[in-house]
Amino acid sequence: MIYREYGSTGKMVSALGFGGMRFKDIKDIDTCVSMMLTAARGGVNYFDTAPKYFGTGSEEAFAKGLATMRNENLPYYLSTKTDESHPDCIRREIDAQLKRLDVNYIDFYHIWCITSLDNWRERKKNGVLETFIKLKEEGLIKHICVSSHLIGDDIKELLMEEIFEGVLFGYSAYNFKTRQAAFDAITDRRIGCVVMNPLGGGIIPGNPEIFRFLQTVPDETVVQAALRFLFAHQEITISLVGFETEEQVNEALAAANSPLQLSPDKLKQIKKNATVSLEGICTGCQYCDHCPVNIPIPKYMDAYNQKILSDSKTAITDRLFWHWNLKPEDAAACIECGRCEEECTQHLNIIERLKEISVLPSK
Ligand code: SF4
Ligand code: SF4
Fold first, then answer.
1. How much is the average pLDDT of 87-111?
2. Measured distance CA(134)–CA(136) in Å, rounded
3. Is the Cβ–Cβ distance between 25 and 54 less than 8 Å?
4. In this structure, which ligand is nearest to the CA of 289?
5. What CATH fold (topology level) applies to the domain 3-273?
6. Domain extent listing, the chain
7. Gap from CA of 129 to ligand 2 centroid (Å)
8. Contact 236, 2 (CB under 8 A)
9. pTM of the model
10. pLDDT of residue 289
């Protein structure tokens, strides 16, 4: 396992992190705990959850996993988040989290999901920073971090806030261009950098041919290649994978524990070789999924992904029909309120895509 210092905190964390947002069956606690233990025994010491992953289910599963790790003397750092910004609400949230997680403190506590600079200014006005500082003074959290879906210079601006000791944002082999600017601020300020969605919400393993350009040795899987691509970034402290199954944990551990690491030159070469433009892909994060007219946006955008990721002229309608049982014409129900685009972590032009889908012939 590769270990790196998290920013300038002095804490050495594993380059592979365990994300608690994709467990296949959150009710099967024994399996969730077993996956966490497999990761911890393989050297992972960074475990990330949130109060709204499977409702409170992920934090509840983490409580059991972390308790077992403590019993087995397996070291860990705990990361979680809050999207509350009013002092009383944050206080209520963290009290509930500490109880739910059965811990006395949280190592890395994130101001969760900053969607725009306006959103950030609003939260600051509400007192989020003062409250986080107070929590740290009280010893309830050890480090103040932020999670964001901003891109380009916006994320740079956010990270100039001196208070942040680390950042969590989406970065993978297909969206690396949009978030490159963040690395300047990360390096200048020496803060921790955790990247989430490193496998593009399943898009990379689901399209091994398209992501073949990542592979540097013949026998590695595309998942291992995608993770090695991230590990080769010296600016990235941790690549956080949301695991569904134990097999996936083992596959990622094999990449993290392999002696094969990419040199900076090799990394540059891979980026150059990314001949297929992969930007504009929906990662299935579901942040947009609150449509007032109940359009299942992530499913429609997943179908649109197929158009980008395949040569087939019927890729969208095939996917809608066979995979989601949806009709293209139902996308016309969009009233163009714009809410989904504001929330979209990938900054997709959802309204235009829905219009394009809505006129496709139904199967
Ligand atoms: S813009 Fe259209 S799809 Fe998006 S939330 Fe509004 S109505 Fe729904
Ligand atoms: S459209 Fe955007 S917000 Fe919605 S699931 Fe896809 S990437 Fe996430």
1. 97
2. 5
3. no
4. 2
5. TIM Barrel (3.20.20)
6. 3-273, 297-358
7. 28
8. no
9. 0.79
10. 85
